Amino acid sequence: xxxxxxxxxxxxxxxxxxxxxxxxxxxxxxxxxxxxxxxxxxxxxxxxxxxxxxxxxxxxxxxxxxxxxxxxxxxxxxxxxxxxxxxxxxxxxxxxxxxxxxxxxxxxxxxxxxxxxxxxxxxxxxxxxx
Length: 130
What we know:
This protein is an all-alpha fold. Helices cover 68% and strands 0% of the residues.
């Protein structure tokens, strides 16, 4: 695999990927299970771009949402609650709650206890993911 070593090469590869996506979409040749010259070239260039990003751009990988956070979100969705309602129910301010939900703040023991007592979230799920 050719390695991209300059920003100019990276930008050129990015522009080529965008062009290929547009062409393949227009021709109906871009789909989840398709294997053709467009998808192969897009894949090749994307791998080169990802390697460049890892080496030179310090791009952080996408974080997978914690099952605990998903469970909290599901509870609020089912009960028609907004984030501010959840913060109030769980006894924290909206800013702290937002930081917890986005993964920027760790879950404290007291907050974990409220998740268990107020929302009825399984204690094992809390312990494994807090």
